[in-house]
Specification:
3 strands, 16 helices, globular, mainly alpha, 3-stranded mixed β-sheet, 2 domains
Length: 373
């Protein structure tokens, strides 16, 4: 930890210097200048307001969901599920989600990722032969990123206004695909049917539709952000946001991170990371590569996604469309309201035009409590 902290102090010092230089030019607070790199138009004051609303109900909701699910734990599917079988299933689901294989592909890496350019989008995932849902959900998540890139307006290709709007909006698309869509009961039914066939598990009780949906929506507080479910995930982000905001402002120093981290983990998730740096403050790359201001976009994306789905449900029978097997109307809506807008206007305008209002965290609360409680 000492050697890690020594190097991180240098990174934080440089990040503070960068933040002040950018802030002087933009006429804003230092942290806002870094946040603007990833989520243009967003400010720390607005994030504080939004995250403050989450903190008011999320910890008790997490406990309530855990208690409820303990009464009927899911039967977990047992492997082995070969990599070849998993890849074939993943590509089938990508096809159903409208991924254009003429302009992209699926490969393997140590961490799921999406990269490239709109005309050549590369998706990666990692496979666990004992748990196929991890790779599959990773593929679906990255397909959301990919569909956004593939759906950007071609007549604006290569221009700043033709690029994806922000990291938060990008994350809203991946989370819309993975959480709002794929983990819904309707889409879980489609996945379950495909998985039964892919793994020849027609008579396996773990692949009963109701049980399979419970598998996909299992909630459990944990130490690692990238493994977190959608209910506990915002707690990981709020923890990191509070720390990095105070690091950049100079209200705390690197040496204080472990204690601050442990206190927040206990407050939000009932877990302690005292002395456990590997599963605590050393697990992410964002601070080590200087990406301060990035973390909030993950949860902002989840909030955007919930708000978009609620608006979509008011305009069409989403579950009925999914049950039909032809989900293209969902993507047509996203294309019209998000993908084709690219960076031609502000995030507030995109959200307001699509949903009738700017960011409102109440929709996320309604969604989480509606699905899990």
């Amino acid at each position: 930890m000492d050697s890690f902290a020594k190097n991180l102090k240098e990174v934080v010092a440089l990040a503070r210097e960068e933040a002040h230089i950018r802030a002087d030019q933009k006429g804003c607070a230092p942290y806002d200048a870094l946040l603007d790199l990833y989520e243009p138009g967003m400010t720390a004051d607005r994030v504080d307001e939004v995250f403050g609303a989450l903190k008011a109900w999320l910890p008790e909701t997490i406990q309530a969901v855990v208690d409820k699910q303990a009464q009927q734990p899911p039967l977990m599917p047992k492997g082995p599920f070969t990599q070849a079988q998993q890849k074939a299933l993943g590509e089938q689901v990508m096809q159903q989600l409208g991924f254009n294989f003429a302009q992209g592909r699926l490969d393997v890496s140590t961490h799921p990722f999406c990269g490239g350019v709109p005309t050549d989008v590369r998706i990666t995932t990692r496979y666990d032969e004992q748990d196929f849902t991890s790779a599959l959900m990773g593929v679906i998540h990255e397909t959301g990123h990919a569909r956004y890139e593939q759906g950007l307006p071609k007549d604006l290709a290569g221009l700043p206004v033709g690029q994806a709007r922000s990291m938060g909006v990008h994350e809203s698309q991946s989370l819309f695909f993975e959480m709002q869509l794929a983990r819904s009961e309707a889409f879980a039914t489609l996945i379950c049917q495909r998985a039964k066939s892919a793994f020849n598990r027609q008579n396996d009780p773990a692949f009963h539709v109701e049980n399979f949906h419970r598998v996909l929506t299992q909630v459990a507080p944990g130490y690692i952000r990238v493994d977190a479910d959608e209910v506990t995930y915002p707690a990981h982000i709020m923890l990191r946001y509070d720390i990095e905001r105070d690091l950049i402002s100079g209200n705390m120093e690197v040496d204080h991170i472990p204690e601050r981290w442990d206190n927040a983990m206990q407050q939000y998730l009932g877990l302690s990371t005292a002395g456990n740096y590997k599963s605590g403050c050393m697990q992410d790359i964002h601070w080590t590569d200087g990406s301060f201001g990035y973390f909030p976009t993950y949860t902002l994306g989840a909030l955007y996604a919930a708000q978009l789905m609620q608006a979509m449900r008011q305009q069409m029978d989403v579950d009925g469309i999914i049950a039909s097997g032809n989900v293209s109307p969902i993507f047509d809506w996203l294309s019209q309201h998000i993908w084709q807008r690219a960076s031609t206007t502000s995030t507030d305008n995109i959200l307001k035009d699509a949903t009738g209002e700017t960011l409102n965290p109440a929709h996320f609360r309604e969604y989480i409590q509606g699905r899990y409680l």
